[in-house]
Amino acid sequence: MGMQNFITPDFDYMKGRHLASREDWTQPALNASRVDEFEGIVGNSQTLLNVLDLVRIVAATDSTVLILGETGTGKELIARALHNNSRRRDRPFVKLNCSAIPSELLESELFGHERGAFTGALTQKVGRFEIADTGTLFLDEIGDMPMALQPKLLRVLQEQEFERLGSCRTHRISVRMVAATNRNLDEMQSRNEFRSDLYYRLNVFPILMPPLRERREDIAPLVAYFAENFASRMGKRIEHIPLETLNALTSYAWPGNVRELQNLIERAAILCHNGVLPNPLSTLDAKQLLANPPSHATPGTFMDSQRTIILQALHGAGWAVGGPRGAAARLGLKRTTLLSKMKKLGISRPSTSSRGAAVNQNSEARSVEERRPDQVC
């Protein structure tokens, strides 16, 4: 993400910070002093500011921190913020993704090994704990750590000492531990899938990262930053983000959170050819859009977009809902699911007796909204 915190989603600049006010979310309500110290974090929402307050409090200590949250919410950024605002800021920040290393190699990655410790150990290897000595070690996806390795991790947390594989020499270290996971460790330890003693040792100071759908005020500044970032990287000119595009982005459910938003803005930047950022949600299929409704739909934006998609499919299928060529099949939905959405959106099938003129007459008023050029899906 980035250091700057953009106030407005609609901008006519690339290098400067010219702000074009647009409706309520573009008002400059930013308290910059509360976020500028956290490099890489963008946003003004109270939900995010509450998290940063916790980061600021615990960063001054050496306590173990457990960062919880869905995938793509920025847990690594919080880990870096903890390190950068601690007394260890000038010491190493070492990270390791526990799910990215095969279980049989993870122990060697953490603790290192001596030459000849096992088949293939041709040289001595220094582990991540030694590298992070006097600094911070960030273990991402800690919920994927093998059960057999968890007691050894617990010992390092409690005693700050370990031995390399194949060695009897004890190494003493001073490492601040930060762990993160998108799994429910509380449920895992109750099912004996994660050691209870390690869970309680990690859970000294938990920080819950909110999903993007719970901090929608941050979507506009995130879009603005990503657009400028990708435009600079690609050598493109992006001068304007339409309000209609921002309405659609703000209303979307974002199951992939900030990572999904970043990837879609990169896609939009690639497709941008006239200085206006296109709506990246239009490149998603109808099934994906309809399957991820927002927690609160914005009138005139997301619900209108859903209605437009469904009506287009119904018209194309001759108002046949089911069957291999029906609207449900066109949208990739079950017939019952489509009927439920039609009822929720107030879409009813025209009577067969007057399908010709009645369709145009009865649905024209509703379709005017759907055919407006500024509507997006």
Q: What is the string of SSEs from the N terminus onward? A: HEHEHEEHEHEEEHHEHHHHHHHH
Number of discrete helical segments? 15
Q: Classify the beta-strand content into a percent band.
A: 5-15%
Which superfamily, in CATH terms, is the homologous superfamily of the domain at 46-212?
Answer: P-loop containing nucleotide triphosphate hydrolases
In the CATH scheme, the class of the domain at 46-212 would be Alpha Beta
End-to-end CA span: 25 Å
Average pLDDT: 80
What is the strand arrangement across the widest sheet? 2-5-8-1-9
CATH topology of the domain at 46-212: Rossmann fold
The major beta sheet can be summarized as:
5 strands, parallel
Q: Which CATH architecture of the domain at 46-212 would you pick?
A: 3-Layer(aba) Sandwich
Q: Helical amount among residues, as a percent range?
A: 40-55%
Q: What sort of overall outline do the alpha carbons produce when their principal axes are compared? A: elongated
**Unreliable segments of 5+ consecutive residues:** 1-33, 294-300, 353-377
- What structural class do the secondary elements suggest? alpha/beta
Cα radius of gyration in angstroms: 26 Å
Number of separate strands? 9
Oligomeric composition of the shown chains: single chain
